[in-house]
Amino acid sequence: MLTHLDAQGRANMVDVSDKQPTTRDALAEARVRMLPTTLQMIVAGGHPKGDVFAVARIAGIQAAKKTADLIPLCHSLMLSSVNVELQAEGDDCVRIRARCKLTGQTGVEMEALAAASIAALTIYDMCKAVDRGMQIESVRLLEKSGGASGDFSAP
Prior knowledge:
This protein has helices at about 35-45, 50-65, 65-70, 110-125; strands at about 20-35, 80-90, 95-105, 135-145, 150-155. By secondary structure, it is of the alpha+beta class. One of its GO terms (molecular function) is cyclic pyranopterin monophosphate synthase activity.
């Protein structure tokens, strides 16, 4: 049984040493709502701090690689792939999708969620001077495959 509690009820890292490595894949997303003028500035490449999407993409990739440093009891993983995509959605939203993959003994859901979240926070950080009312929303797991718990696809 996998649990984060030991026999005494204390938090601990799950022991995955007896699990067979399998291909694991997870896709997470986040959205950042903003003023239409803020989104126009980002898309036009007119932000004084530079290419917002490029910086957010790199931040998301770095976050996926450092998830074990951010989330207590999370395993350090050798990710084989991290992909962060950002795109304008409508006139006031950026949709972020982060996919993480590996062949290993534990899943990559937290890495994908961390990537999407940190990319969203990076957009907020870069744009807060022009739009303090931005909202980060809908951070969620969209799908995952591999592992003993089976596949998942959000409705």
